[in-house]
Amino acid sequence: MNPRAIQEDYPDDMSHCYGCGRLNPDGLQLKSRRDGEEMVARFRPKPGHTSMPGFVYGGLLASLVDCHGMAVATDAALRARPERGIERFVTAALEVTYVHPTPLGVELEIRGKIEELGERKAVVSARILADGVECVRGRVVGVRVPGTMSRPATGGASNPE
Amino acid sequence: MNPRAIQEDYPDDMSHCYGCGRLNPDGLQLKSRRDGEEMVARFRPKPGHTSMPGFVYGGLLASLVDCHGMAVATDAALRARPERGIERFVTAALEVTYVHPTPLGVELEIRGKIEELGERKAVVSARILADGVECVRGRVVGVRVPGTMSRPATGGASNPE
After folding, report:
1. Cβ contact (<8 Å) for B93 and A93?
2. What is the signed CA dihedral for B26, B136, A58, A6, rounded to 10 degrees?
3. pLDDT digits over B90-102, tens only?
4. Using an 8 Å Cβ cutoff, are A129 and A142 in contact?
5. Contact between chains at B26 and A18 (C-beta distance less than 8 A)
6. What is the pTM of this model?
7. Where are the domains positioned within chain A?
8. How far is A3 from chain B (nearest CA, A)?
9. What single string gives the DSSP state of each residue in B7-30?
10. Is the pLDDT of residue B111 over 90?
11. Closest alpha carbon within chain A to B151
């Protein structure tokens, strides 16, 4: 596995994300690393990340799918066109299926791979495993970030859509 | 609008949820109230609930859809069969479409309504508005909670599937 997480290479203005931003001290700080044709992240939910007692909150699991999915999209775009550097994707659609209750108290493994990569959008499939059991399946559609979500560079022109 | 939120009537073992549990001090404590044929919740994200700077994290928005959706399902089941009291639903599937970037710094309105209610499952549609602009659309499938997710009552028999 690549020891370096792609989030470590996100530029600062992509690094405030609650799910995966290295500059967000209150967030989840998810880290996604390449492992062959997939990317992998590991995350141990906190005791408060509860749904029913003993099980992980579905909104947290959706968040892990979301951020890991965007990491997969960013990584795929970077490998396809390394000369462009890190490109920004935002989530356009998120589908999560809870196939098995996810137990609290174990480290989760989030795996994702790119399914489609186009000029405008990327589609990623993901799954979350607890002790090797697949608990969650997900699909994320990301789009390259529109100009209205970018802040203009210091001294630069604004960048409307 | 009904002044009482349905989460206030959830039994204790449904009330630890990170998204809407009144007994989870670290959680979001979402409250969903009946307003005609819909249910409504209001939530103001914290500054740390960021995606790109200035916009709300998609995982949080998915969480709001999830918990509000289950509140709508619970409310619909209670109205259909009040003699059963509050029934437990868990999320089986969650679909979220981000139709417009959601600005940080405003109170969000989450609206949901029941689309289908069967013996085993419920389907809910939801949307999130910021300053009246629809930013998120969601669909949640809930199932009545299987026995393996319930803890046996004190002194009672276990409740396997």
Report:
1. no
2. -90
3. 999 999 999 999 9
4. no
5. no
6. 0.91
7. 6-149
8. 25
9. GGGS-GGGS--TTT-TT-TTS---
10. yes
11. A53
What is the CATH architecture assignment of B6-149? Roll (3.10)
CA nearest to A28, candidates A78, A68, A74, A1: A68
Kindly list the residues from chain A whose CB atom is less than 8 angstroms away from the CB atom of residue B91: 58, 98
Which residues of A fall within a CB distance of 8 Å from B59? Answer: 18-19, 59-60, 62-64, 66-67
Residue A95 vs residues B33, B93, B115, B138: alpha-carbon distances, Å: 26, 7, 18, 10
How many Cα atoms are found within 13 Å in the side-chain-facing hemisphere of B70? 33
Distance between CA atoms of residues B77 and B82, nearest Å? 8
- Residues B60-75 have pLDDT tens digits of 999 999 999 999 999 9
**Enclosing H/E stretch for B124:** strand B121-130
CB atoms A52 and B88 under 8 Å: yes
The ipTM of this complex is 0.90
- Please count the residue pairs, one from chain A and one from chain B, whose beta carbons lie less than 8 angstroms apart: 139
Q: Phi, psi (5° rounding) for residue B6? A: -65, -30
Side chain identity, residue B122? A
